[in-house]
Amino acid sequence: MGQRCGKQHDQPIPKGREESKKAKQSSLHLFFFLSLFSTLCFFFAVRFLSTSSSSLSFFGDKEIAFYNNYTSHSWHRHSPCSFLSNNSSICCDRTSYHSDICFMSGDVRTHSHASSVVLYPPSNVTINRNSSAEEKIRPYPRKWEGIIMDRISELRLRAAAPQDAPHPCDVRHDVPAIFFSAGGYTGNVFHAFNDAILPLYITSHRLRRRVVLVVLNYHHWWFIKYREILAGISDYPPIDFSNNTRTHCFPGAVAGLRFHGTLAIDPAKLSDETMSMQTFQHMLEEAYNEPKETKPPRRPKLVVVSRGATRVVENEGEVVQLARAVGFDVEVLRPTDRMPMARVYASLSRCDAMMGVHGAALTHFLFMRPGATFIQVIPLGVKNVADTCYRDPAVRAGLRYAEYEVLPRESSLSRKYGADDVVVRDPERVQGKKAWDVTKQVYLEGQNVTLDIRRLRKTLARVFETVVADRRRLLNL
pLDDT tens for residues 18-58? Predict the structure, then answer.
């Protein structure tokens, strides 16, 4: 079973429209095949030549090496599409439990009216009859969850026959495309990062921002909200696949996204060490470009992430007073859909610790600097999902992790059901075979907490001592 974290929603949202600029046209000629190396270079060059002469501006030595990185997928371990051997190839890797991903090498053209991407063979290259003539893909990394996948637009990838007349190019691009969906649950910040942004970063990283994002289930507000991050992934405006009806031509394409795990980049799945959670965090730092602090503030800073609907801390004012008494400067952060991500990043990238009740807003731990402390308040019956969705990813991201696990007497469920009810005494028994449904309805959506101030003091005091010790150590370096 895949991960389920936080409140999931994917309300229909009016679509926007982004169009990419036309690539400048130029022409060169390639005449070098004096050695085996030159022949191989020519082999890759032919892939781009198939789009027409306007694509030839892409063919300096650096561009050939760059495209070699794109077409050689051996950088991702155990991929059945480790190499596309021919200029008219479609290869799909469907081995992952979470996501399918397909690769197209050659003259790739969009046909949005038919929800299709068509690969046209060049006249001087024989079609690989072993490759598929058509593949279908829903480019969203939750393929195990049929209910939501049914709401993701399906994309047809088709290899045209030699006699098929190609659609004329309205817009030519000299870099490849990545097709993915911004639908599903991505209206929720956890899923925005887990189902879209991190998989997109993994899939595109080797292309060094020289890639066009072509988006199914496009929502304009989503691209405004995450625009700084997406600019760190692609140097080009995104394309709304369904509403942009012009024919866009690319020298290659990827449909679908790689998925490494819950809020994860797993170096073990890569054949080199050029990508990690640390490189992702560095990309975020460059994207938001926060000015560096000349010296740390006098008191360590704790950000309390406040909730306003479910899993509310009913004595939040007392919690804030306690944290200040322990020694922290405290900022109460109430993220909303309208709050700019740059504002959230500015708060969390400078904090020493963040504390909040389990929920989607804790995904912002990704904005914290390595070595900072993440304190997760875990309501009754939520331990397993809290560990999977935030504890494990936070540790992988280089954060210190602490947790405050709510006791039955601190949960509003004790008032609602009674302290002796099985809902309070034995959540695992109640969850049984319908673990997620019960967890969501009873323990996530039906529970608030009142934290024991004396218990919490011990947790905050330990974190404070750790932060102060770190500061002293840095001053002595």
Answer: 333 333 333 333 333 334 334 444 334 333 333 333 332 33
- Domain layout of the chain by residue ranges: 36-287, 292-475
Other residues' Cβ atoms within 10 Å of the Cβ of residue 192: 22
How far, in Å, CA of 443 to CA of 358, rounded? 11
Side-chain-side CA neighbours of residue 222 (13 Å): 29
Place of tokens 């020493």: 352
Contact criterion met (CB below 8 Å) for 324 and 464: no
Strand, coil or helix: what is 363? Answer: helix
> Distance between CA 313 and CA 37 in Å, rounded?
65
CA angle in degrees (0–180, nearest 5) for 269-203-110: 145
Q: Give the separation between CA 327 and CA 358, rounded to whole angstroms.
A: 24
Strand blocks (E) in 22-145: 89-93, 101-111, 116-120, 134-137
Distance CA 216, CA 175 (A): 19
Tokens matching residue 431: 């969850």
The fold of the 292-475 domain, in CATH, is: Rossmann fold (3.40.50)
Q: Taking the C-alpha atoms of 20, 241, 51 and 141 in order, what is their torsion angle to the nearest 10 degrees? A: 110
Q: Which residues pair with 105 in a beta bridge?
A: 89, 252
The pTM (predicted TM-score) of the whole model is 0.84
Least confident of 34-48, 210-224, 279-293: 34-48
Instruction: Count Cβ atoms below 10 Å from residue 339 Cβ, excluding itself.
Output: 12
What are 247's two structure tokens? 């024919």
Q: How far is CA 424 from CA 359, 411, 416, 436, 446, in A?
A: 20, 9, 10, 17, 12
Q: Strand 248-255 and strand 101-111: pairing?
A: antiparallel
As beta bridge partners, residue 137 has 155
Structural tokens at position 351: 């904090």
pLDDT in tens, 114-170: 999 999 987 666 555 545 589 999 999 999 999 999 999 999 999 998 778 888 999
H/E element, 354? strand 353-357
CA gap 430, 150 in Å, rounded: 30
- Based on the number of CB atoms within 10 Å of its own CB, is 134 exposed (0-12), middle (13-18) or buried (19 or more)? exposed
d(CA 385, CA 262) in angstroms, rounded, equals 11
Closest CA to 177 of 260, 258, 105: 105
